[in-house]
Amino acid sequence: MGQGTTIMYAQWNKESRKNAAKHIKTDTRKQPHPEEPLELDPQLRLVTKVGGMILFSGAQMHSTVPNTSGYTRFSIDFRTVHFDDAMAQRGAPNIDSACTGTSLGDFLRSTDLCPISDSLVALYDKKSFTNVQTPQTPAIAPTVVKT
């Protein structure tokens, strides 16, 4: 994001999420980007077997390549938060975007699909994200993992 752009997550969720489907072939929205030049070669491309998966932190710099196979590529993104880490406010900092607010209000507890507590969300969002009306929770929702 950089360049002084600030995006309030709750506002984006309320107004812009519905527009995401318009960005299939090209995406003109501002995206996080490296803050300094990266050495892109040699490239490391991970290719899984059919049905395979790759697990990594969202804080890991990553990208994709154009699909030239002639077949549809499906990518499903599961975002999880470890409850104890969230409560202790442990985790990688988000240093490459100017977003404000938190997406924690979107997460559901995996044991019973209940939203996580407002008090946990409030630890990360002093602007009361939980008071903003958001779209219906998707069928595949982010989850909080409690071990």
Describe this structure in words.
The chain is mostly loops and 147 residues long. The protein has one domain (1-34, 77-147). The chain has three helices and five strands; from the N terminus they run βαβαββαβ. The strands form two sheets. Strands 2-5-4 form a three-stranded parallel sheet. The protein has a two-stranded parallel sheet with strand order 1-3. β4 (108-109), α3 and β5 form a beta-alpha-beta unit. The protein is globular. Residues 1-5 and 127-141 have low confidence and may be disordered.
Mean pLDDT: 74
**SSE arrangement, N to C:** EHEHEEHE
Largest sheet: 3 strands, parallel
The general outline is globular
Widest beta sheet: strand line-up: 2-5-4
Measured distance between first and last alpha carbons: 34 Å
Number of domains: 1
Question: What is the count of helical runs?
Answer: 3
Radius of gyration: 17 Å
* SSE class: little secondary structure
The proportion of residues forming helix, as a percent range, comes to: 10-25%
Strand proportion, as a percent range, falls in 5-15%
Uncertain regions spanning at least 5 consecutive residues:
1-5, 127-141
The number of E-state strands comes to: 5
